[in-house]
Amino acid sequence: MRYDNTINLISKIREISSMFIISELEKLGIKGIVPSHGDIIVTLIKHGELTMTEIAEKINKDRSTVTTLVKKLNKIGFTATKKNESDQRSNFVFLTPKGKELEEGFNQISEKLYDIQFKGVKEEEKEIFRNVLIKIYNNFKEEK
């Protein structure tokens, strides 16, 4: 039997980085948001208004999961929805003025996160690391 703790280590990194993000959000006075909400907010910052399906594709999550997350973001006032005039079956999601105010804080947190995760890591090591992670991800995706 071969044993390797790579997946466990990735899980631990995800957990501790999520705790870091939540702590940084709290320091900035941003309440009610967790890292899974951040994916949606960052995507809307980059792309403007999008449908639930477009968001789901861009952040690689189920549409139903995105719908649940967006409902929470709507409830706390960071996003809103409006009917898609060209397709009445779908809605556009967009950042409210309150949601747009998150951009600067999110940028600060992203910079800190990047600096921490790659402290002492050379550029060529980063490239190799990312390539290996992509291969591992694709291996699991093929098995799905």
Distance between the termini: 23 Å
Structural class: mainly alpha
Q: Mind telling me the CATH superfamily name of the domain at 29-108?
A: Winged helix-like DNA-binding domain superfamily/Winged helix DNA-binding domain
Number of DSSP helical runs: 7
- For this structure, the CATH topology of the domain at 29-108 is Arc Repressor Mutant, subunit A
| Main β sheet profile | 3 strands, antiparallel
Q: TL;DR of this structure?
A:
This is MarR family transcriptional regulator. Residues 1-138 form the HTH marR-type domain. The protein has 144 residues and is mainly α.
Q: Which characteristics define this entry?
A:
7 helices, 67% helix, 3 strands, 144 residues, Arc Repressor Mutant, subunit A, three-stranded antiparallel beta sheet, mainly alpha
Task: List strands and helices in order, with pairings.
Elements: H1 6-27, H2 35-47, E1 50-51, H3 52-59, H4 63-75, E2 79-83, E3 91-95, H5 97-100, H6 102-117, H7 123-143
Antiparallel strand pairs: 1-3, 2-3
